[in-house]
Amino acid sequence: MEPTVLLILTLLTSFLLLLVRGHTKACGQLPPGPRPLPLLGNLLQMDRRGLLNSFMQLREKYGDVFTVHLGPRPVVMLCGTKAIREALVDQAEAFSGRGTVAVVEPILQGYGMIFANGERWKALRRFSVATMKDLGMGKRSVEERIKEEARCLVEELQKFQGAPMDPTFLFQSISANIICSTVFGERFDYKDRQFLHLLDLIYQTFSLYSSFSSQVFELFSGFLKYFPGAHKQIFKNMQEVLYYIGQSVEKHRATLDPSNPRDFIDTYLLRMEKEKSNPHTEFHHQNLMISVVSLFFAGTETTSTTLRYGFLLMLKYPHVAEKVQKEVDQVTGSHRLPTLDDRTKMPYTEAVINEIQRFSDLAPIGVPHKVTKDTLFRGYLLPKNTEVYPILSSALHDPQYFEQPDTFNPDHFLDANGALMKNEAFMPFSVGKRICLGEGIARNELFLFFTTILQNFSVSSPVAPEDIDISPKEIGFGKVPPTYQICFLAR
């Protein structure tokens, strides 16, 4: 009799334990998602068109918060404006950790301000925000630098005399020069061969970063790192950019005047010197190198790619460009360049720039986050260090906030009286504690470059507007617009 009772008790206990485990899994562990296979994760549920399409399809089945296994590791997806804001804004501290992107991890290794975590991130961000602010408030403000660069650009575009051209390298040059003047203390000529080579490396790297093969690498980096692929080329390109930055840092060391720091590198070197006796300092050579490469890369590629997408959209929708020109003419006339003070008087132009950013959707998957502690979110328990992808594309195309989310329409940002309207779903720079460090400078650049170009030139395409293809060339962690030809015709 006793063994039977014991057996029944054991079975009952096991059954109860299974029930309890099942219950905690449903209520208190990771959000639901497709069942993963050992090692392969959710590979079988992935769409051939890439991660973003895969996540959007899974969202239809599992809702706005779900778990996907990228290879063996679980990642929580946040879709839609409300879910992203609840996490990154309402629980900002808990979601302020930074995850990794496998193709750039061997170079960045958690250094620099973009991919750092914990005290390193806090120290570098505080320093960078203060330094960038000081450099912008100096004798020549950032606005003056952007206006001067815009003048140089107008002169350069006039040389083409309306002939068709690919604007990629020029848009890269003007964006890079603003960040270079702040970080390296110099601007470069548009014909400077070394400068153009660096810009080409950045362009190629961004394209590879956004490619399908980089997305596959994200799933199985532990295995694929031993084989050729985009990751090897990204590593090679970034090493070359780092070599150039290393040379620049050495020149700065040799010519440093402690009483008169010229730029970000000088200011950082002075801080390094000040903290050299602190064995735990974050102000060391490695963090300087990766911080500079991060600023250079982010400051160049995001603004230039937005401008590239913006002018492609102006070719596709010429009536929008004409309306912007009309507003610019009314406010500035042709006798002076636009200034940042003109912004408030140009609601339509501002709405167009916002809509360009929304529609171009440059970081559709966002930069990965992770939770800094065990975190309760919408009834689920996310263990410390769980990776989280805020799918920014799902906010920028949120039908609850944008009437025609898949259509380019500046009215998304205008009220019934034509005044500029704020929109909670508009988060091209992300939101919360990890919001892009360069948001302010990027917005200033976009406004001044965009208005100055359209004040001085009309734009046209060798291709009829209805035949212009605006679908991206690559879409993954980044989004790359197609290459195209444009004519800048002096007004």
UniProtKB/TrEMBL annotation:
Subcellular location: Endoplasmic reticulum membrane; Microsome membrane
Signal sequence, start to end: 1-22
Classification via PANTHER family: CYTOCHROME P450 2B6 (PTHR24300:SF406), CYTOCHROME P450 508A4-RELATED (PTHR24300)
Function: Cytochromes P450 are a group of heme-thiolate monooxygenases. In liver microsomes, this enzyme is involved in an NADPH-dependent electron transport pathway. It oxidizes a variety of structurally unrelated compounds, including steroids, fatty acids, and xenobiotics.
Family: Belongs to the cytochrome P450 family.
Membrane topology field: Peripheral membrane protein
Cofactors named for this entry: heme
The keyword Heme belongs to this UniProt entry's keyword annotation: yes
Gene Ontology CC annotation, any one: endoplasmic reticulum membrane
GO molecular function: arachidonate epoxygenase activity; heme binding; iron ion binding; oxidoreductase activity, acting on paired donors, with incorporation or reduction of molecular oxygen, reduced flavin or flavoprotein as one donor, and incorporation of one atom of oxygen
Tagged with keyword Signal: yes
Taxonomic source organism: Peromyscus maniculatus bairdii (Prairie deer mouse)
Keywords in alphabetical order: Endoplasmic reticulum, Heme, Iron, Membrane, Metal-binding, Microsome, Monooxygenase, Oxidoreductase, Signal
Positions with a binding annotation for heme: C436
EC number(s) per entry: 1.14.14.1
Name by which UniProt lists this protein: Cytochrome P450
Lineage per the UniProt record: Eukaryota, Metazoa, Chordata, Craniata, Vertebrata
